[in-house]
Amino acid sequence: MNRRPLILLSNDDGYMAPGILFLIEVLRPLGDLVVVAPNTGQSGMSAAITVKTPLLLNLVSKEEGLSVYRSTGTPVDCVKLAMNQVFTERKPDAAFSGINHGTNSSVAIHYSGTLGAVLEACMNGIPAVGFSLDNHSFDANFEPARAYMEKIAMAVLKNGLPEGYCLNVNIPAIPELKGIRLCRQARGRWIEEFDKRKHPQGGNYYWLTGNFHNDEPEAEDTDMFAMREGYISVVPSTIDMTAYSFMENMKSWNL
Amino acid sequence: MNRRPLILLSNDDGYMAPGILFLIEVLRPLGDLVVVAPNTGQSGMSAAITVKTPLLLNLVSKEEGLSVYRSTGTPVDCVKLAMNQVFTERKPDAAFSGINHGTNSSVAIHYSGTLGAVLEACMNGIPAVGFSLDNHSFDANFEPARAYMEKIAMAVLKNGLPEGYCLNVNIPAIPELKGIRLCRQARGRWIEEFDKRKHPQGGNYYWLTGNFHNDEPEAEDTDMFAMREGYISVVPSTIDMTAYSFMENMKSWNL
Questions:
Q1: Cα distance from A32 to chain B (closest Cα, Å)?
Q2: How far apart are CA B48 and CA B35, in angstroms?
Q3: Spatial contact of A186 and A106, defined as CB atoms under 8 Å apart
Q4: Cβ–Cβ of B187/A240 closer than 8 Å?
């Protein structure tokens, strides 16, 4: 019986993105890998699911220890298809998503397709981790993160994660990383600056742009602070969004 | 100076959906309304944002106390456009999304476009509420919820909500509602059952279907339990997904 860990990989940049190719390279010694990732880029797709159109799922390649599937769906669709159509005999021992080209720290966890895949795996009871590098370019250098990613992956495979919890890992794009820090999600938001342009047929159209605003740049326990200091941030995250601390207060509303 | 509350409305079923028309009817006596909602249905779009194509935003109608805009974007895009292009002089006092045709209890908060709009308003510091009715049909009866929705909306306009908190309100589709209960998000997941069909050009294609599985059907403090008992569930929710309770435990990993 094969006791090597069985590992699901996905992302939101597409199955051929350099980030997922590097992730495959890092994880390959640790287990048998099954990639189920989108055909093309799905950045900003959050935990979106495809309800109005059917999905395609195709095997791209299969060799000892590595199968690659691509799908027309979102990152969440990919994980759903993986769990239901690919892992029919044995559930994966862990799921890893990324490496995203671009950071997903702070509230970006809500918009990110990379983290959408992580949340979906988490809902399915699979210990899941999202990796993101703070560099959007195609030729970003993932190498400095290799040893740290391996360490995190091995720890997750060894310890698992309690039901409903997952990890959001963000990596500064610098040549010499200082280490890993456990953090909380920084409070912040995008200050949207739509680029408004004249439509050739009249009226306007809008490109979403915007800059991120950190509401608490000096808070040392946040992911954004850790990254600025040169550390990889690990935010243990929960799919339970209930605001328990506010519930007591709300009772006075007498609804 | 106009001191009437200024209220943003959005949804994920489109600006002409019966659910948002009913919401307009309920809220109209409470303030000046600005609807910025998608052109067409965006169910399951979660907190997705549109990064690869530009967006259109068009004024549909404008009368005393009610302006309606539609956009080609997702629910989150609609809120972003509203905050940046429509509310240029005064921020809204509250935001309401829905009424969704279909429940968004438990983990559906992660997939729901209705709640995506709520999270976005919340990130922008606006007290925000998502309303969903447990009935997918076009001619769903929203009437039994009217007085309760009014009560919740008035309470939010009076009390506000602390930064980073929002409300996820789910309404059973029954003629006689018993009242309102403050709840936590039930633990559960979709048991996906893809409908696999033969593609006319060879291979397969997959329709996402699936049934929801409640992991804790007897937990009386959950939204799903409250709804089953005939109550409207209100889950105070937070955009901070950090798993604080697990952080201490994870320190033993020595990352």
A1: 24
A2: 19
A3: yes
A4: yes
For A75-134, what is each residue's pLDDT tens digit?
A: 999 999 999 999 999 999 999 999 999 999 999 999 999 999 999 999 999 999 999 999
- The tokens of B38 are what? 């998608």
What residues contact residue A244 under an 8 Å CB cut-off, 6+ apart? B184
Chain B residues close to A171, C-beta within 8 Å: none
Residue to test with chain A: of B206, B223, B252, most A Cβ within 10 A: B206
CA distance A8 to A65: 12
Is the per-residue pLDDT at A3 higher than 90?
Answer: no
Of B48, B182, B192, the CB nearest to A247: B182
Q: How far is CA B69 from CA A163, A205, B72, in A?
A: 42, 14, 10
Set out the domains of chain A in order of their start, with CATH numbers.
6-186+219-253 (3.40.1210.10)
User: CA A179 to CA A182: how far, in whole Å?
Assistant: 10
CB contact under 8 A, A107 and B197: no
Residues in a beta bridge with B196: B206
Q: In this structure, what token pair is assigned to residue B12?
A: 């994920």
Closest of A21, A80, A85, A19 to residue A58, by C-alpha? A85
Nearest CA in chain B to A179: B255
DSSP 8-class letter at B27: H
Alpha-carbon distance A203 to B192, whole Å? 43
- Residues B102, B67: contact at Cβ < 8 Å? no
Q: What are phi and psi of A42, to 5 degrees?
A: -135, 35
pTM of the model: 0.96
Query: Does the structure show a pLDDT above 60 at B1?
Result: no
- Outline where DSSP puts E strands in chain B: 6-10, 32-38, 57-63, 66-71, 94-101, 128-133, 165-171, 179-182, 188-191, 195-198, 204-207, 211-214, 231-238
**A85-88: Cβ within 8 A, 24+ apart:** A85/A57, A85/B194, A85/B196, A85/B206, A86/A34, A86/A36, A86/A57, A87/A6, A87/A8, A87/A34
A239/B242 CB distance under 8 A: no
Strand, helix or coil for residue A169 = strand
